[in-house]
Amino acid sequence: MVGGSARSAANGAPLTEALLRRNKIAEVGERAAQRPIGWLKFQLLLKVQKSARIAQRVEPPSAPDSPSSPFRLSPLAQAFVLHFGEMGSRWGINRTVGQIYAMLFLADGPRHAEEISEALSLSRGSVSMGLKELASWNLVQLRHLPGDRRDYYATPRDVWAIFRTLVEERKKREIDPTLTTLRTLLMEPATDPADRFAQDRIAAMHEQIELLTDWYAEMERLDTERLLQLLRLGERVVKALEFKDRMLGRGKGRSLTESDDGRT
Fold it and tell me: Residue 25: which domain range?
């Protein structure tokens, strides 16, 4: 075999790397056959090499790298995340949900569930439930990356977009059902003085909430830049109302409701 390899090289026929490796194995086998112990080692070597080649063929391709570096919470970020978790229970959401949202808010790019679980030391089940809750509030956005089957999540970058979404969702979940109930109660017949008194109180509450929702609808139609201009007016709006009251002869301490009711 060795002579054959030399003659092929002498004749100018190029030997591939696989052929050279096969010739080398055959040469070692010829020498090992002369010694029983060496032959056993040679057979073991062949099995190891065969297993290695099979493993290389069946090894699945590695998953693409994350779009950004692995997320690690700094001490400042940890304080922010912990605070959101504590406040979550006061806002009517789970502590875990608050922590997940705070982490995604500070992240420099979309994150998948494994990264969130590792950074917050949470189970995959808790992370999955928390992400579903945030998605139901429209507070996280689902992203997909080319060549990656995993789901990535991110929060809107615009803080005002987050604020608008949060207010709208709370309105749908809390204010709108309350208004519906109040309207239903006001349509019930009042058969005695106690019911009439109760309906008067309910009507006052209904009117106040509806006034606020009408104001919110007007503000919602404004773009962010115009809304910021309105908010920055601050005290100047109060002064303008006070000036109008003086022009109309109203007292400084009187409310607009009293004036509208004819109690000026």
Answer: 2-58
